[in-house]
Specification:
The complex is a heterodimer.
Chain A lengths: L11 H7 L7 H24 L3 H23 L7 H8 L3 H24 L5
Helix pairs in contact in A: 2-3
Chain B lengths: L1 H4 L11 H11 L9 H30 L7 H4 L2 E3 L2 E3 L2 H25 L3 H31 L13 H32 L2 H4 L13 H26 L1
Antiparallel strand pairs in B: 1-2
Helix pairs in contact in B: 3-7, 3-9, 5-6, 5-9, 6-7, 7-9
The chains are: A mainly alpha, B mainly alpha.
Chain lengths: 122, 239
């Protein structure tokens, strides 16, 4: 870290080259913050209004992914990191999704067995 | 940090025994060119935490999909009576907004830290910690309410018995993360306040020289806690 204070607005390129630190305009954070509020309000609204079925689930997933994406990309600075780090962090969670698929099949089977074998009091 | 992350020549003599093994693993390569050691390690820790929370939510999905007893309606269970009318999920909604607000102030704190605005950084971090503590407080209230209504890890009056176990496990683990985050926010804020990152003082735990990047690394952890809540809110409370 160089000794004199380097302001992001003065020399963003130079600062980024010299330091590892992330320098971005405050305005960007405020915009993302605003959208996180809006998206949270939207997902609460889904419950408040009482949407059901496919509409409910798809809206919940969409708002959730948008919020998660904004937090990781901007607040956690992932869009400005090098691809080596981005891949190292964001690809392994795909294994969790595979696990989800496996366990969804498995729990469907378990539910079927319970319904068939313990009808009316399992 | 250059001394621990630079590429060394391979011709250097290898030290004997376990010290040589450690030296070989520690210093030969640097994969993450622009991310410092501290930031890369925080990301890898967060990745491992992702697997932990992923498995909790996965277990919850498995329990909920395979039970033949109806799952309790979260909208009603977590609703509150305000002014004589039932408002669904209101406490959880407030908790969500508090945590998102704290994420915003943390992002601003990181920004101020890189501009060497110590006062603003400390105030923003203290605000973040305050909102984190508020979140944990509301969670304690929620736990108290549910326990007094008879929710236990082995059963509850609303429906499927697994509801209590998954609820206490998932929100408890998340609340622990928030609590630890608040403690570390206060520690880092104190270091900023005392100007330890300006002087590059050595940390009490790792003995490494600190700099303002540690505020950003602290921020990564805090945003992750918020990120996990996004998934818990969607899957456990709204689904």
């Amino acid at each position: 870290m160089s000794a004199p204070a380097t302001h992001a607005h003065d020399v963003p390129q130079a600062a980024a080259a010299v330091e590892h630190g992330q320098h971005h305009p405050i305005r960007l954070y405020l915009i993302v913050w605003f959208w996180l509020f809006v998206l949270s309000a939207c997902s609460y609204f889904v419950d408040y209004v009482g949407f059901e079925g496919f509409l409910r689930w798809s809206l919940i997933i969409v708002f959730m992914m948008l919020k998660a994406g904004l937090i990781v990309a901007v607040f956690m600075h992932m869009v400005w990191e090098r691809l080596a780090l981005v891949y190292a962090i964001l690809l392994p969670p795909v294994a969790v999704l595979v696990f989800v698929a496996i366990m969804a099949i498995e729990s469907d089977y378990t539910a079927l067995m319970r319904t068939m074998s313990f009808v009316g009091g399992g | 940090m250059a001394d621990t992350t630079a590429n060394h020549a391979t011709s250097r003599p290898r030290r004997p025994g376990i010290a040589g093994v450690a030296a070989d693993w520690a210093s030969d390569q640097r994969a993450f060119k622009t991310a410092s050691w501290g930031k890369a390690m925080m990301w890898i820790f967060l990745l491992s935490d992702t697997f932990i929370f992923g498995c909790f939510l996965l277990a919850y999905m498995t329990a909920r999909m395979s039970t033949v007893v109806p799952w309790p309606d979260a909208s009603k269970v977590f609703g509150l009576q305000i002014g004589g009318s039932d408002v669904p999920l209101i406490l959880i909604a407030i908790m969500t907004f508090v945590l998102i607000s704290s994420s915003g102030t943390m992002a601003m704190a990181v920004n101020c830290a890189y501009q060497r605005r110590r006062g603003a950084t400390v105030v923003l971090m203290l605000f973040t910690a305050l909102m984190g503590a508020t979140f944990v407080g509301m969670q304690a209230f929620e736990w108290t309410k549910l326990i007094s209504e008879g929710v236990r890890p082995w059963g509850n009056p609303f429906g499927a018995a697994q509801f209590g176990a998954t609820f206490f496990m998932i929100t408890g683990f998340h609340g622990t993360h928030v609590t630890i985050g608040v403690i570390f926010l206060l520690i880092v804020a104190r270091k900023v306040w005392r100007g330890e990152y300006d002087r590059g003082d050595r940390g009490f735990f790792t003995s490494r020289r600190g700099d303002y990047e540690q505020v950003e690394i602290m921020g990564l952890y805090w945003h992750f806690v918020d990120l996990v809540w996004v998934f818990i809110f969607a899957f456990f409370y709204l689904w």
